[in-house]
């Protein structure tokens, strides 16, 4: 099976020129590139094989929402995938409630949400990782019950494994696989008919460790942050 590799550039690079140059270096069939909003158009024009993603969206369709961006606007630029509920957004105040509204807006318009869920370091230390993950997962499952078709990606991304966190270490691939299995079983238990689900891992994935995660059938891809800005690293991941 082909794996899904998503390059989450976060708030990088600084200029459109750099975004275009990076796109040209990493452009590849199995890749989804999620640049910052201002570079979406330029990245789209430089893509020959990869697909376009966005890092967030607002749930309302239009109107007086200064600074926000709608699903329709992103769609008009060629965006097909939208990352939702990333821990870096949750840290800035994004709630489960907001993520649910965004999921509904994205699926309603036929785009693919990449719903991020993950436990924090304190959850891990307290042995409540699964509880924390389920707390984020369940509201989105409820939200999806009103849809009869669509493709959904869940990304298990433990916050403590994100490379920019202090003392970050990638999850052990076996643990990541086990948590993904728990997420998958929960989703499948709910009997959401007509929807297609995929499950990927994120958190310090790089050219050296990607094989350890992607060798498992249950881990259908990777959400890559830091390494997605380094063409050599990303190329290694894509080769795997
Ligand atoms: P890193 O790959 O830099 O750990 O980032 C993971 C991430 O947050 C991707 O969304």
Structure description:
- There is one protein chain.
- The protein has 240 residues and is an alpha/beta fold.
- The protein has one domain (4-230): Aldolase class I (TIM Barrel).
- The protein has helices at 16-26, 40-46, 71-76, 87-91, 96-108, 121-125, 129-144, 173-189, 210-214, 231-239; strands at 4-8, 31-34, 51-54, 79-84, 112-117, 150-156, 195-202, 221-224.
- It has an eight-stranded parallel β-barrel with strand order 1-2-3-4-5-6-7-8, surrounded by five helices.
- α5 (96-108) packs parallel to α7 (129-144) and α7 (129-144) runs parallel beside α8.
- The longest helix is centred in the last third of the chain and has 17 residues, at 173-189.
- The model has no long low-confidence stretch (mean pLDDT 96).
- The protein binds 1,3-dihydroxyacetonephosphate.
